[in-house]
Every structure is written in C-alpha cells, then in structure tokens.
Write a structure and sequence with these properties.
about 30% helix; about 400 residues; alpha+beta; 6-stranded antiparallel β-barrel; 3 helices
Length: about 400
C-alpha cells in the first residue's frame, strides 16, 4: 500500500518537472549569446608596395596646332576628328577674303579712276613717241655736225652743241618711258580695284594658300569645322600621333616630394581594359591651384608618366586614368589586410580567430597603404584575422566565419 502511494507521488511530479525543464531549455536556447558572423582573411607573406593613388589623363606626347599664317577665308574642311593624315597632305585651304559690298557711287568712282589712269597712259605713250621723234632728229643733226666739222666747214663748238642736244634727247626719251611705266602701273591698279568688286570676281576664283600636315597622324581637334573668315594666327586644327601617348597625373604638392623620377606607375583606364605600365618621366617644378570635389582649394603638381609601350586599346587624348605610383617596395614581409586593423591608443591591434573565439592581439605596423599593412610583430603567417571588426567584436567574443554553414 505504501509503495503504491510513493509511486503515485512520483508520477504526479514527473509532468510538472519535465515541463519546467523543457521551458528552461527553450529559454536558454532563445536567449543564449549567439556567435557573431564575421568576415575573415589570412595573414600572408608577400610583397608590400607603398603607392600613391591619384587620377590623371592621357595626352598626346607631341601636339601640332596649325594656325592661319595670314588673314583669309577658310574653305570648308573635308577632314573630321579621328581622320588619318599623311605628312605633306593638304589639311586646310585659305583663299583671299571676299571684298566688302560697295554702292553705285563708289563703283562709279572706281570706273572714273580707271578712265583717268587710261588717259594718263595715252598721254605717256604720246610723250614717248614725241621723245623718239626728237631723238631721231637729234641723231641726224649730230651726224651732219660731225661730218661738217671733220671737213672743216663748221667750228668745233657747233659739233659739241649738236652732241649735247643728242644727249638731252636721249634723257628726254628715258623720262618719257618712265612716265609711261608709271601710267601702266596706275592703270593696272585701277583695273584691279574695279575687278575686285565686279560680279564673278569673288574669293573662290582667286588663288589661295594650302596648309599641309607636318607628320603622319590623326586629326584630334577642329577649331573651326565650317567655311568662314579667319584672322592671322587663328588656330585651325590639331594633329597628333595617337599611338604616342603619355599620362599627366596631378599630385598634391605636399606628397609629390615622395615621387622620384623613374618610379614605376600602373595606369587603369577602365573596367575590362588591360593595365598600362609606365615610369615617371619628370615632375614639373610648378604647382597650380585646383578645387577638390569638397570645394577645398589644393595646390597640385603635374607628374608626367611615359608609357612602356603603345596602348593596344582604343585610347586617345584626354582619356581619364587611375594611376598607382610606386613609392617603395619590400619583398618577403608579413602582410595583413588594412581592414583588419583597429586603433589601440597610439598603436594597432587585430582580432585573431582562435577556434570559435576572437582574441585581441597588439601588432607592430611598419607601413601601410590603402589595402595592406606590413606587420613586423604580433602575428605569424597563416593566422586568420577578422575584417571590419567594428565595436561589436570584443576579446573572447564567439564568432562564426561568414562562409561557414
């Protein structure tokens, strides 16, 4: 009887106790600290490069700008940007500027001026004819005077007088001929002035000036792509060899002192395009002011980069590039991603994954760049570190790798 009572009591307690244990298990499962999912990377040995990253642009190594040597009328160019040209090929043509329109009164004045010049020429021709007749008479008189003087019929003075008259007649003929030349030039000038305003005598019918390409290359810019008047010295078009390019990278004046001539440079021109390699050719000794995207005025210096080889892609003048200029390099050093570093007072620390826990480790950083840091103490090759730890990761925090299932 007592045994049955005891068994009944135990059975009465089994269900409440079991239910309480089940509730406790559910609550412990629901509220227990869960491991933090983290992104990790391995510590590796490799080559560390201290680089300077800036934007730049490609430009022609040699640009030829053709200018109008004299004022004139530019004929409509047949070339377009990108067209190939050969050395000596005509790339632009200039013709004399068409004269301004004149009124009927001005035209009548030009006609009268030509008539006056023609009359002056006729008068000059008459003077020449008159001088020729006088010279012929003087020669005859001089000949008779010589004959009579030689025969002793006249005095020597008469002979000298006849010879002097002959010289005067010759000089008079020369003067008349000079006056005829003046009249000829005056008539030609009057005719030219009238012909310039006559219908059908425009700029298209007169001779012009041809400008030729100085090199084999391409047209990279048209300063004027239609016919029209141009002034002396006005730029008409740019020609260059698009296979001979260089890069111009503007660097902060406070950082350009780290860049040395001959430093290796890698140029990225876009997604999918091959990386271009080159070297610093020169650092310009002049700075200029540039406003940044934040509206801050900065002093920058141009760094000229010579490409190791001509680019294979369809690149050209003015294309944007992203440049990585190597400042220093060291092989066989311990590398850790820069995203794993956390400030620890005046030093640095990282979180190393030890099993399912994150352990804080102080490290000695020699140098670092945008993506990597050179660590000399505190880590060893092959260890796993937490990336972007933030404020949630603490020493001893349970973690789970992001790619773990």
């Amino acid at each position: 009887m007592n045994e049955k009572r005891k068994t009944g009591r135990w059975r009465a307690w089994i269900w409440p106790v079991g239910l309480a244990l089940a509730v406790a298990a559910v609550l412990w499962t629901a509220y227990r600290p869960r491991p933090l999912v983290v992104e990790v990377a391995r510590v590796e040995t490799g080559r560390f490069e201290q680089v300077l990253e800036e934007d730049g642009r490609l430009r022609l190594r040699d640009r030829y700008v053709l200018h109008a040597p004299v004022p004139g009328e530019l004929r409509r160019p047949a070339l377009r940007v990108g067209d190939e040209v050969r050395q000596g090929q005509v790339v632009a043509e200039l013709v004399p500027v068409a004269p301004q329109l004149i009124d009927a009164r001005t035209r009548q004045v030009l006609v009268q001026r030509m008539g006056s010049a023609d009359a002056a020429r006729q008068a000059a021709l008459a003077q020449v004819a008159r001088a020729e007749v006088a010279l012929s008479q003087a020669r005859s008189d001089a000949g008779r005077a010589r004959s009579l003087a030689d025969a002793g019929f006249t005095a020597a003075a008469a002979r000298e007088q006849a010879e002097q008259a002959l010289l005067a007649a010759e000089q008079a003929l020369r003067a008349a001929q000079a006056q005829r030349a003046v009249a000829d030039f005056g008539l030609a000038e009057a005719r030219s002035a009238l012909a310039a305003v006559e219908p059908g005598q425009g700029a298209g019918t007169r001779g012009g000036l041809s400008l030729r390409s100085p090199i084999d290359g391409r047209v990279v810019k048209l300063h004027q792509d239609s016919a029209g008047p141009v002034a002396a010295g006005q730029a008409l078009l740019d020609i260059g060899d698009t296979a001979a390019l260089e890069a111009v990278v503007d660097v902060l004046s406070t950082e350009v002192g780290q860049v040395g001539t001959g430093a290796a440079v890698q140029l990225s021109v876009g997604v999918g395009a091959p990386i271009l390699s080159g070297r610093v050719q020169r650092v310009e000794p002049v700075a200029f002011t540039k406003v940044s995207a934040l509206g801050i005025e900065e002093q920058r210096v141009n760094v000229i980069v010579a490409l190791d080889q001509a680019p294979e892609a369809a690149l050209g003048d003015g294309f944007r590039v992203e440049a990585r200029i190597a400042l220093s390099a060291q092989d066989g050093v311990l590398l850790v991603p820069a995203a794993a570093l956390v400030r620890d007072g005046g030093g640095w620390r990282v979180f190393v994954v030890d099993g399912d826990r994150a352990r804080a480790r102080s490290v000695q950083v020699r140098e670092r760049n945008a993506s990597q840091a050179w660590v000399s103490e505190g880590l060893s090759e092959g260890q796993t570190v937490v990336l972007y730890p933030g404020s949630l990761v603490t020493d001893g925090q349970r973690v789970r790798l992001q790619d773990a299932r």
